[in-house]
Amino acid sequence: MPSLKTSPMTRLHTLYRDRLKTGQVVPDPAQEDVVQRLDALSVAFMRRSKQLFGRTKDNVRGVYLWGGVGRGKSLLMDMFFQSIDMKSKRRVHFHDLMLETHAFIFEWRRSGPSDRKRHPAFVKGAGDDPIAPAAKNIARQASLLCLDEFHVTSIADAMILGRLFERLLEYGVTIIATSNRPPRDLYQNGINRQLFIPFIERLETELDVVELKSMRDFRLERLRAAPVYHYPLSNDADQAMDETFERLTAGEVAAPGALEVQGRVVPVPLQAAGVARFSFGDLCAAALGAADYIAIARRYHTVLVDRTPRLSPERRDWAARFVTLIDILYEARTKLVMSAEEEPDRLYPSGDGSFEFQRTASRLHEMRSADYLALARAEPGDGT
Prior knowledge:
- The chain is of the alpha/beta class.
- 45% of the residues lie in helices and 16% in strands.
- It folds into 2 domains: 11-211, Rossmann fold; 218-373, Rossmann fold, CATH 3.40.50.
């Protein structure tokens, strides 16, 4: 594979070089190899866009990019996504795509024949089978589909993925996926896994399986570069939180986001590169609950919480939500960076609930430790 020094400069090359120059990423041969592979994909898309109108376009072969936690898979996929100049593209978390697909299937089954025929995703001859319309609905939105954190823990997902992806490929959708596991390790020990094997074989046949072989956990290095718990509240603490967010997002453009949870929208004030930033008020003064915190822990590998106040029985509801939030982040092994008015042991020193808060304080101490920061995330749905 040619080195970056001798390859023609593509937009992806330019983005990667710019981040090397600014120190947002550090030189890594394994990452450079993947940049080369994604560059070939960029060239294929450029050639495809130049094909004559009305001519059948050749499908562009996708990539399944896997490797250890913190190696830069999502970062490289995001830079690739940014470098592709086309409107028909979408970048989405795998979990969100599956939630959308299940919701579409549910609504499709509820609708009558006349409503289905009027729907833009109607597929003639599909009958009552909702998979083909579900795939067509996705393909209508994007001919390039970038899926982050591809993992399968739900039998409901496992049972529809094979037919869904088969249809997506038939519709000419190019799939780029990142995962912590090679295809052969997906849905390990899952119920009726033998029924899932044909999908794995299709995945290995239709996509190029590329391993990001970096030996460095860049995410862990960035987390360990500075403290992850800042107190007391001050301008210095605010600045430290800003610097941590910038370091963890490695030059990705941060923007507001949203999560849909049980039909409700949970705003995310700032997000980028798998990192979300909230104020304490956003998470614990608002009427959020366990389902919302689980959705946050599933979507983001690191959560920043700004300006946590000293808690008291007068706002017992805030404290209760904070306890639930920390429990869920801890069990999911989501990394936490926060600023607070006090050390954990003095955040809720007395009053109703203060004794129970001692466990939360203990977890906050542990979540600052090198051992906790080095833990791999728990897969959603594995009992944590």
